Amino acid sequence: METLEQALRKLPLFAEVPSEVFPILLTGAIEMTYQAKEIIIGEGESPSGLYILLDGTAKLYKSSPDGKEQTLFVLNSGEPFCLCSTFRKKPFPVTAAAPTTCRVVSITKQAFFTAAEKDNAFLFSILLKVSERLRDAMELAGTLSLQEVPQRIATFITKLESENDSSENQQNVRLPMSHKELAKVIGATPEALSRTLKRMSDKGMIAIEGRNVHILDRERLEQCAEMGL
């Protein structure tokens, strides 16, 4: 059976951590498994430290008193969360939940900062993640406030395509979530999402097969991201 150290070593965030520093992290590490729809950390709670997703998916979202949700981030294997709460003694500002069964490891703040003091490269990689998350949050705020639904969808697909490492499949992307969850990410109703995807398909921009999106006309898709349908 794979050990926790072996599982963490596979993740880019920990790949370069020196062997003498790793035991420090492990002394404060606890592995946990969450079932689909289970809450990992609730909004307003105080996390014990840094959390890292080992496998599966997790989502960070805000909810209103009437039950409306706005998904902020969908996390995949290897991604950390509770970054701000690790550096500051503040409650967790969102809710972290498991859309699917997932494994998570938490590392106490004491173990994290002790390891960071001994390995500046590890601390730098964490700060890089903080800056990336901040950039994504700013982009999301701009998208939700300034763009209509077709622009939001086109922007999401083109960004996903640009992050695709496979040159062989650069015309195809796979949505990392269900259409229902995607609607929450872009701030639309599921019905509005379905109607817009159909319109984009009818106009020959994309073809949809479940979660698979085939980009048929990248130029028109990019125009849609800028100006809408």
TrEMBL record:
PROSITE patterns named among the record's database cross-references: CNMP_BINDING_3, HTH_CRP_2
Signal peptide: none
Keywords: DNA-binding, Transcription, Transcription regulation
An annotated GO cellular component: cytosol
SMART domains cross-referenced by the UniProt entry: cNMP, HTH_CRP
The organism's place on the tree of life at top rank: Bacteria
Domain Cyclic nucleotide-binding per the UniProt entry, residue ranges: 13-112
Record-level Gene Ontology MF annotations: DNA binding; DNA-binding transcription factor activity
All residue ranges annotated as the HTH crp-type domain in the record: 147-219
Protein name: CRP/FNR family transcriptional regulator, anaerobic regulatory protein
Protein's organism: Halodesulfovibrio marinisediminis DSM 17456
